[in-house]
């Protein structure tokens, strides 16, 4: 169950990162509210997952899901560049996440 909660927490990190971008520096109300709600929910789910998962594992997986997810949203939704170096970096992050999961 902790892994499911951690995955949901990571997904919400993607939501708040995207909505923060859309808030234009917290000057737009709806994206700002989405950011705040998603942040609180993400932190809450992370905290519950950390009751049973090791700190290093939980935090690494949570930030990795958020980082790679935000990268993919940037590519697909915001039209950010998909350079070979950026793609390699994302692959390396995912590889690290897989290794972290396998070691737990």
Q: Unreliable runs, pLDDT <50, ≥5 residues? A: none
- Quote the average pLDDT: 95
The total beta strand count reads 0
Distance between the termini: 14 Å
Query: Number of helical runs?
Result: 4
Question: Mind explaining what this structure looks like?
Answer:
InterPro entries: EmrE-like, Small_drug/metabolite_transptr, Small_multidrug_res. This protein is 81% helix and 0% strand. It has 4 helices and no strands. The protein has one domain. By secondary structure, the chain is mainly α.
Tags for this model:
flat; mainly alpha
Write the layout of secondary structure elements.
Blueprint: H1 2-22, H2 29-49, H3 55-76, H4 84-103
Helix pairs in contact: 1-2, 1-3, 3-4
In short:
The chain has one domain.
